[in-house]
Specification:
25% helix; 6-stranded mixed beta sheet; globular; alpha/beta; 11 strands; 5-stranded mixed beta sheet
Length: 271
Protein backbone atom coordinates (compact mmCIF):
# COMPACT_ATOMS: atom_id res chain seq x y z
CA UNK A 1 0.00 0.00 0.00
CA UNK A 2 1.07 3.58 -0.67
CA UNK A 3 0.21 6.24 1.92
CA UNK A 4 1.17 9.91 1.55
CA UNK A 5 1.47 12.12 4.60
CA UNK A 6 1.79 15.92 4.42
CA UNK A 7 3.00 17.99 7.38
CA UNK A 8 1.36 20.94 9.12
CA UNK A 9 -0.36 23.39 6.75
CA UNK A 10 0.47 26.94 7.85
CA UNK A 11 -1.78 29.79 6.76
CA UNK A 12 -3.25 30.77 3.42
CA UNK A 13 -0.06 30.22 1.43
CA UNK A 14 0.28 26.67 2.74
CA UNK A 15 -3.32 25.66 2.19
CA UNK A 16 -3.39 27.28 -1.27
CA UNK A 17 -0.32 25.30 -2.29
CA UNK A 18 -1.83 22.04 -1.05
CA UNK A 19 -5.22 22.69 -2.67
CA UNK A 20 -3.64 23.63 -5.99
CA UNK A 21 -0.96 20.94 -6.15
CA UNK A 22 -2.41 17.92 -4.36
CA UNK A 23 -4.25 16.66 -7.47
CA UNK A 24 -0.94 16.70 -9.39
CA UNK A 25 0.90 15.05 -6.48
CA UNK A 26 -1.74 12.32 -6.25
CA UNK A 27 -1.45 11.64 -9.97
CA UNK A 28 2.34 11.46 -9.86
CA UNK A 29 2.74 9.39 -6.66
CA UNK A 30 -0.49 7.34 -6.89
CA UNK A 31 -1.13 7.04 -3.12
CA UNK A 32 -3.94 4.83 -1.89
CA UNK A 33 -4.61 7.30 0.94
CA UNK A 34 -3.56 10.89 1.70
CA UNK A 35 -3.33 12.20 5.27
CA UNK A 36 -2.66 15.89 5.91
CA UNK A 37 -2.02 17.73 9.18
CA UNK A 38 -4.14 20.89 8.99
CA UNK A 39 -3.88 22.34 12.48
CA UNK A 40 -2.35 25.70 11.43
CA UNK A 41 -4.34 26.15 8.22
CA UNK A 42 -6.59 29.00 9.44
CA UNK A 43 -4.32 32.06 9.59
CA UNK A 44 -1.71 29.94 11.37
CA UNK A 45 -3.98 28.91 14.25
CA UNK A 46 -6.44 26.04 13.97
CA UNK A 47 -8.72 24.93 11.15
CA UNK A 48 -12.28 25.70 10.04
CA UNK A 49 -15.06 23.68 8.45
CA UNK A 50 -14.65 25.52 5.14
CA UNK A 51 -10.92 24.78 5.04
CA UNK A 52 -11.56 21.12 5.84
CA UNK A 53 -13.99 20.88 2.95
CA UNK A 54 -11.56 22.57 0.58
CA UNK A 55 -8.79 20.13 1.49
CA UNK A 56 -11.08 17.12 1.11
CA UNK A 57 -12.17 18.36 -2.31
CA UNK A 58 -8.51 18.74 -3.33
CA UNK A 59 -7.74 15.10 -2.50
CA UNK A 60 -7.01 14.79 1.23
CA UNK A 61 -8.67 11.70 2.70
CA UNK A 62 -7.97 12.36 6.39
CA UNK A 63 -6.99 15.50 8.33
CA UNK A 64 -5.02 15.41 11.57
CA UNK A 65 -4.36 18.23 14.03
CA UNK A 66 -2.44 18.94 17.25
CA UNK A 67 -2.19 21.51 20.03
CA UNK A 68 -3.93 24.22 17.95
CA UNK A 69 -6.98 22.09 17.16
CA UNK A 70 -9.38 24.24 19.22
CA UNK A 71 -8.05 27.69 18.20
CA UNK A 72 -11.02 28.24 15.85
CA UNK A 73 -14.02 27.78 18.11
CA UNK A 74 -16.35 26.74 15.29
CA UNK A 75 -14.43 23.48 14.90
CA UNK A 76 -15.70 22.18 18.26
CA UNK A 77 -19.15 21.46 16.82
CA UNK A 78 -17.88 20.40 13.40
CA UNK A 79 -15.36 17.83 14.65
CA UNK A 80 -18.15 15.67 16.08
CA UNK A 81 -19.85 15.62 12.66
CA UNK A 82 -16.76 14.94 10.54
CA UNK A 83 -15.10 11.53 11.11
CA UNK A 84 -12.29 12.38 8.66
CA UNK A 85 -11.05 15.18 10.95
CA UNK A 86 -9.04 13.90 13.91
CA UNK A 87 -7.73 15.51 17.10
CA UNK A 88 -5.10 13.97 19.40
CA UNK A 89 -6.44 10.68 20.74
CA UNK A 90 -5.02 11.25 24.22
CA UNK A 91 -7.33 14.14 25.09
CA UNK A 92 -9.44 13.16 28.13
CA UNK A 93 -12.57 11.04 27.70
CA UNK A 94 -15.49 13.29 26.77
CA UNK A 95 -13.50 15.67 24.55
CA UNK A 96 -15.35 16.34 21.27
CA UNK A 97 -14.28 14.43 18.21
CA UNK A 98 -12.15 11.33 17.83
CA UNK A 99 -8.43 10.69 17.80
CA UNK A 100 -8.25 7.61 15.62
CA UNK A 101 -10.21 6.28 12.68
CA UNK A 102 -10.31 3.32 10.33
CA UNK A 103 -10.52 4.47 6.71
CA UNK A 104 -11.06 2.43 3.55
CA UNK A 105 -9.05 2.87 0.38
CA UNK A 106 -10.72 2.73 -3.04
CA UNK A 107 -9.98 -1.01 -3.26
CA UNK A 108 -11.36 -1.77 0.19
CA UNK A 109 -8.19 -1.99 2.28
CA UNK A 110 -8.28 -0.54 5.80
CA UNK A 111 -5.97 2.19 7.09
CA UNK A 112 -5.95 3.06 10.78
CA UNK A 113 -4.87 6.67 11.35
CA UNK A 114 -3.93 7.62 14.91
CA UNK A 115 -3.40 11.27 15.90
CA UNK A 116 -1.38 11.51 19.14
CA UNK A 117 0.18 14.41 21.06
CA UNK A 118 3.37 13.92 23.03
CA UNK A 119 4.10 15.66 26.33
CA UNK A 120 7.61 17.16 26.59
CA UNK A 121 7.29 20.96 26.27
CA UNK A 122 3.62 20.47 25.29
CA UNK A 123 0.28 20.58 27.11
CA UNK A 124 0.22 17.51 29.35
CA UNK A 125 -2.50 15.24 27.98
CA UNK A 126 -3.07 11.61 28.93
CA UNK A 127 -0.08 9.27 28.63
CA UNK A 128 0.49 8.87 24.85
CA UNK A 129 2.31 5.55 25.28
CA UNK A 130 -0.54 3.93 27.22
CA UNK A 131 -3.25 5.43 25.02
CA UNK A 132 -1.70 4.28 21.73
CA UNK A 133 -1.17 0.80 23.19
CA UNK A 134 -4.90 0.59 23.90
CA UNK A 135 -5.84 1.77 20.41
CA UNK A 136 -3.57 -0.87 18.85
CA UNK A 137 -4.93 -3.57 21.15
CA UNK A 138 -8.42 -2.76 19.87
CA UNK A 139 -7.36 -2.43 16.20
CA UNK A 140 -4.14 -4.36 15.59
CA UNK A 141 -2.13 -4.25 12.39
CA UNK A 142 -2.74 -7.30 10.25
CA UNK A 143 -6.14 -8.32 11.57
CA UNK A 144 -8.24 -5.14 11.84
CA UNK A 145 -6.01 -2.74 9.87
CA UNK A 146 -3.94 -3.32 6.73
CA UNK A 147 -1.87 -0.20 7.42
CA UNK A 148 -1.42 1.88 10.58
CA UNK A 149 -0.19 5.49 10.40
CA UNK A 150 0.60 7.50 13.53
CA UNK A 151 0.87 11.30 13.39
CA UNK A 152 2.88 12.06 16.55
CA UNK A 153 2.55 15.75 17.30
CA UNK A 154 5.43 16.75 19.55
CA UNK A 155 8.32 19.10 20.25
CA UNK A 156 11.18 16.96 21.60
CA UNK A 157 13.12 14.80 19.17
CA UNK A 158 14.11 12.40 21.95
CA UNK A 159 10.49 11.76 22.90
CA UNK A 160 9.54 11.28 19.26
CA UNK A 161 12.31 8.74 18.74
CA UNK A 162 11.43 6.90 21.93
CA UNK A 163 7.77 6.81 20.95
CA UNK A 164 8.59 5.39 17.53
CA UNK A 165 10.81 2.65 18.96
CA UNK A 166 8.00 1.80 21.38
CA UNK A 167 5.77 1.15 18.35
CA UNK A 168 8.33 -0.44 16.05
CA UNK A 169 6.94 -3.58 14.45
CA UNK A 170 3.35 -2.82 15.51
CA UNK A 171 2.51 0.01 13.08
CA UNK A 172 3.36 0.79 9.48
CA UNK A 173 4.59 4.36 10.01
CA UNK A 174 5.23 6.94 12.72
CA UNK A 175 5.72 10.47 11.36
CA UNK A 176 6.21 13.58 13.47
CA UNK A 177 4.58 16.99 13.19
CA UNK A 178 4.60 20.30 15.13
CA UNK A 179 8.14 21.67 14.70
CA UNK A 180 7.51 22.63 11.04
CA UNK A 181 11.09 21.68 10.05
CA UNK A 182 11.62 18.56 7.87
CA UNK A 183 14.18 16.20 9.36
CA UNK A 184 16.62 14.11 7.31
CA UNK A 185 16.07 10.84 9.19
CA UNK A 186 13.53 9.04 7.00
CA UNK A 187 14.18 5.36 7.66
CA UNK A 188 12.60 1.99 8.33
CA UNK A 189 13.25 0.96 11.93
CA UNK A 190 14.63 -2.43 12.96
CA UNK A 191 11.36 -4.35 12.93
CA UNK A 192 9.57 -2.65 10.08
CA UNK A 193 8.07 0.71 11.05
CA UNK A 194 8.72 3.71 8.79
CA UNK A 195 9.87 6.79 10.68
CA UNK A 196 10.60 10.49 10.29
CA UNK A 197 11.06 12.77 13.31
CA UNK A 198 9.20 15.62 11.59
CA UNK A 199 7.61 15.82 8.16
CA UNK A 200 8.02 19.60 8.03
CA UNK A 201 5.29 22.08 7.15
CA UNK A 202 3.36 23.10 4.07
CA UNK A 203 4.13 26.79 4.27
CA UNK A 204 6.58 29.60 3.47
CA UNK A 205 10.07 28.72 4.73
CA UNK A 206 11.30 32.33 4.32
CA UNK A 207 9.87 32.79 7.80
CA UNK A 208 10.14 31.73 11.43
CA UNK A 209 8.44 28.30 11.32
CA UNK A 210 5.86 29.69 8.92
CA UNK A 211 5.28 33.07 10.57
CA UNK A 212 6.29 36.42 9.07
CA UNK A 213 9.79 37.13 10.38
CA UNK A 214 9.59 40.61 11.90
CA UNK A 215 7.57 40.03 15.07
CA UNK A 216 9.12 36.68 16.11
CA UNK A 217 12.60 38.17 15.71
CA UNK A 218 11.60 41.25 17.76
CA UNK A 219 10.32 38.98 20.53
CA UNK A 220 13.61 37.08 20.65
CA UNK A 221 15.69 40.29 20.62
CA UNK A 222 13.66 42.36 23.10
CA UNK A 223 12.15 39.59 25.26
CA UNK A 224 8.90 41.57 25.11
CA UNK A 225 5.47 40.40 23.93
CA UNK A 226 4.42 41.79 20.59
CA UNK A 227 1.51 41.74 18.15
CA UNK A 228 -0.22 38.49 17.22
CA UNK A 229 1.95 36.48 14.87
CA UNK A 230 0.85 36.26 11.25
CA UNK A 231 1.73 33.61 8.66
CA UNK A 232 4.33 34.46 6.03
CA UNK A 233 2.82 34.91 2.59
CA UNK A 234 5.60 33.85 0.19
CA UNK A 235 5.55 30.73 -1.94
CA UNK A 236 5.02 27.60 0.13
CA UNK A 237 7.03 24.41 0.17
CA UNK A 238 4.88 21.30 0.43
CA UNK A 239 6.61 18.83 2.78
CA UNK A 240 5.71 15.26 3.54
CA UNK A 241 6.62 11.63 3.06
CA UNK A 242 5.45 8.64 1.03
CA UNK A 243 5.34 5.28 2.83
CA UNK A 244 5.08 2.01 0.92
CA UNK A 245 4.11 -1.07 2.90
CA UNK A 246 4.31 -4.80 2.36
CA UNK A 247 0.76 -6.02 1.74
CA UNK A 248 1.50 -9.34 3.47
CA UNK A 249 2.53 -7.84 6.81
CA UNK A 250 1.42 -4.20 6.76
CA UNK A 251 4.94 -3.16 7.75
CA UNK A 252 6.97 -0.65 5.78
CA UNK A 253 9.12 -1.43 2.78
CA UNK A 254 10.23 2.18 2.34
CA UNK A 255 9.71 5.81 3.32
CA UNK A 256 10.85 8.72 1.15
CA UNK A 257 10.53 12.48 1.71
CA UNK A 258 8.59 14.89 -0.48
CA UNK A 259 9.52 18.57 -0.76
CA UNK A 260 8.25 20.70 -3.63
CA UNK A 261 7.89 24.45 -4.26
CA UNK A 262 9.19 27.42 -2.33
CA UNK A 263 12.77 27.88 -1.17
CA UNK A 264 13.73 24.37 -0.02
CA UNK A 265 15.49 21.91 -2.30
CA UNK A 266 13.11 19.84 -4.45
CA UNK A 267 12.84 16.17 -3.45
CA UNK A 268 10.41 13.60 -4.82
CA UNK A 269 10.04 9.93 -3.90
CA UNK A 270 11.57 7.62 -6.50
CA UNK A 271 9.12 4.80 -5.89
Amino acid sequence: MRVLFLGDIVGRTGRTAVVQRLPEIRERLAPDLVVVNGENAAAGFGITEAICNRLFEAGADVLTTGNHVWDQREIIAHIDREPRLLRPVNYPVGTPGRGAGLFETADGRRVLVINIMLRLFMDALDDPFAVVDQVLEDSPLGSVADFVLVDMHGEATSEKMGFAHHLDGRVSAVIGTHTHVPTADTMVLATGTAYQTDAGMCGDYDSVIGMAKRHPVERFVTRMPGPRLEPAVGEATICGALVISDDRTGLARSIEPLRTGGVLSETWPDS
